[in-house]
């Protein structure tokens, strides 16, 4: 029986020598079984193999376990305390179900249960793939590097497959349940499968430069509602987004440049987390009235054939401030700056502006010695 997890073997004699353990585990393969060539009556051992020691360290199990610590087994953590040698085998980052089964087998072996009924393994050195740290990032930038016969590592959190001439999304990608970022830019993808919504951890989806003509409403009804924060659909052939699109409430950054959009969702104001929006070079004639509800930090609508020169505020005349004082007052309001002017007359005499920034408690003063003077009063 085998278990992949992180392991730290801590000697209980270290404190007596004034030493402490590292406090962090190492990727390892645990095996419960007998050495090769041993008969049925041979002892059962717990073997710990790591990348540095693939041969592994063996610990006798039968009547040699002092205690099991399983309070956090549901989180994939447990500790097996051995009598000889005096060490604690600390397990973490294990699959909770596999960990429970492994500990049950170790407990039975410790109690001397008939070993014929136990799922024992032959204790052989571990393979590199079994003890190496799980791969979390893979970047593929050419078709010849795209894996055709091998599966993607189950532990991937970031996958980029660009310039691979993919006509559709590989179904093997949809099995990567830990995936947080998926970049399939610069391909030939025409349609998105609804099963992308099964990637419950997906935060970033990049589909720049493909052949998409639509964005499925089923994706908007999936678990992406709670996870997706960045979506890049730029340089495709999308003409409209579904009404369900506004259910992606966690979106922070949305890129829609270089499509064929003729309208934006009329409930786009529901995207209350959206801060960055770019929809340049589309065919938008107007913006929905709900657009005013957005709290954007960056907006790019360049290259759209709007029917009105200013689609955001069609009925408001632009008023240019006439004086520097009015400019300062407008900036104070726009940037929500707390202005401290204790004495209006003193302010007029010194011609200085003072701002207080409550974020860091600092005060900035700007001196305007020539403010309010006529041109004839100024010295050359």
Outline the structure in words.
The structure is a single chain. The chain has 380 residues and is α/β, with parallel strands linked by helices. 12% of the residues lie in helices and 23% in strands. The chain is built from 6 helices and 19 strands. The protein has helices at residues 96-110, 128-131, 217-220, 224-227, 324-334, 344-350, and strands spanning 2-11, 26-34, 45-50, 57-60, 65-69, 78-82, 87-92, 121-122, 137-140, 158-161, 181-183, 204-206, 230-232, 253-255, 276-278, 298-300, 338-339, 352-357, 362-367. The strands form 3 sheets. Strands 1, 2, 3, 4, 5, 6, 7 and 8 form an 8-stranded mixed beta sheet that branches. An 8-stranded parallel beta sheet has the order 9-10-11-12-13-14-15-16, with no helix packed on it. It has a 3-stranded antiparallel beta sheet with strand order 17-18-19. Mean pLDDT is 81; it is low at 314-319, 343-353 and 366-380.
């Amino acid at each position: 029986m085998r278990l992949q997890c992180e392991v730290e073997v801590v000697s209980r004699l270290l404190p007596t020598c004034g030493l402490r353990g590292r406090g962090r585990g190492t990727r390892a393969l645990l095996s419960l079984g007998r050495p090769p060539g041993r008969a049925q009556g041979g002892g059962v051992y717990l073997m710990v193999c790591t990348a540095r020691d693939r041969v592994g360290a063996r610990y006798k199990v039968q009547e040699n376990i002092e205690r099991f610590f399983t309070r956090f087994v549901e989180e994939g953590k447990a500790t097996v305390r051995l009598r000889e040698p005096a060490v604690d085998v600390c397990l973490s980052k294990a699959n909770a179900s596999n960990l429970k089964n492994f500990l049950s087998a170790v407990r039975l072996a410790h109690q001397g249960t008939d070993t014929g009924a136990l799922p024992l393994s032959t204790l052989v050195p571990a393979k590199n793939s079994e003890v190496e740290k799980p791969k979390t990032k893979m970047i593929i930038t050419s078709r010849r590097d795209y894996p055709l016969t091998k599966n993607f590592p189950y532990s991937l959190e970031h996958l980029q497959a660009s310039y691979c001439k993919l006509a559709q999304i590989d179904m093997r990608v949809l099995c990567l349940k830990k995936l947080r970022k998926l970049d399939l830019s610069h391909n030939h993808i025409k349609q998105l499968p609804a099963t992308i919504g099964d990637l419950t951890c997906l935060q970033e989806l990049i589909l720049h430069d493909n052949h998409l003509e639509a964005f499925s409403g089923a994706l908007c009804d999936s678990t992406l509602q709670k996870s997706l924060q960045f979506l890049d659909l730029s340089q495709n052939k999308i003409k409209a987004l579904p009404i369900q699109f506004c259910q992606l409430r966690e979106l922070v950054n949305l890129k829609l440049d270089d499509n064929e959009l003729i309208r934006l969702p009329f409930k786009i104001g529901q995207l209350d987390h959206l801060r960055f929006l770019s929809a340049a070079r589309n065919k938008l004639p107007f913006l929905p009235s709900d657009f005013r509800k957005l709290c954007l930090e960056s907006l790019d609508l360049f290259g759209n054939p709007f029917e009105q020169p200013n689609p955001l505020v069609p009925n408001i005349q632009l008023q240019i401030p006439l004086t520097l004082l009015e400019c300062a007052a407008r900036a104070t309001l726009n940037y929500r700056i707390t202005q401290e002017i204790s004495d209006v007359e003193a302010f007029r005499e010194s011609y200085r502006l003072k701002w207080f920034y409550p974020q860091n408690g600092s005060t900035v003063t700007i001196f305007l010695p020539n403010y309010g003077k006529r041109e004839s009063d100024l010295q050359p």
